[in-house]
Design a protein that fits this description.
The protein has 10 helices and no strands. By secondary structure, it is an all-alpha fold.
Length: 214
């Protein structure tokens, strides 16, 4: 007699409304982390997201899980913008520009410090997003160098640290002033990355490994 092995049960897919609620929570948390820092009450995040407190805790058991999800989602959206630009135009430098400007719009400079201060920065989810980002930006930069678009004496770390610094408001100034000029100043930086730049940079190219050791 032949025994029929039952098929493994598939995990149920989240309902559409549950996915929308999770996205609303992440969006509200991102906005409030930027405005008030990582210690903003979760009740306030729930209120801005338009969901109940129980919905927040059902999706994110603690603050660390929510902060991590916010940072990973920002990194992933920033990468998606670069990938889309590369697909649409095939222009590596334009993809690099899209990455840098989107990183500023996503407030990555305000969120990334929380990775070092708020929770385990070696969490597998965070490491996966970070490593994928480094690979993507590195590949785009290599492609731009090969095409003669990008100067040869820069590396991924140079782009990351400059984008973060230029999109952070200077001490003593309001965020509205910084927002008004951030893309202007980022474009000045990007123009300086072009292969046609005649300056000689002091020091050596900054890699992501250099940043991790700092």
């Amino acid at each position: 007699m032949q025994t029929v092995t039952p098929e493994a049960r598939k995990a149920p897919r989240p309902r559409a409304d549950a996915l929308r609620n999770r996205e609303r929570i992440v969006t509200a948390a991102r906005e409030m982390f930027v405005e008030f820092g990582p210690d903003v009450p979760l009740d306030e995040i729930a209120r801005r997201a338009g969901v109940g407190n129980a919905t927040v805790y059902r999706n994110f058991p603690d603050r660390d899980a929510l902060v991590r999800e916010v940072v990973c989602s920002v990194i992933n959206r920033t990468m998606a913008a670069a990938e889309l630009a590369l697909t649409q135009t095939g222009d590596a430098f334009e993809a690099l520009e899209r990455f840098v400007h989107t990183a500023a719009d996503e407030r990555i400079s305000a969120l990334c410090p929380m990775v070092q201060s708020a929770f385990d920065q070696n969490h597998p989810d965070l490491e996966a997003s970070r490593e994928r980002c480094e690979r993507l930006v590195g590949a785009i930069m290599d492609r731009a160098k090969a095409a003669g678009q990008l100067r040869s004496d820069v590396d991924v770390g140079d782009v990351m640290i400059a984008a973060a610094q230029l999109s952070r408001p200077p001490a003593g100034t309001g965020c509205d002033i910084a927002d008004r000029y951030v893309h202007r100043h980022l474009q000045l930086f990007l123009d300086g990355l072009r292969a046609s730049a005649r300056s000689v940079l002091p020091g050596t190219a900054l890699t992501m490994e250099d940043l991790r050791k700092a």
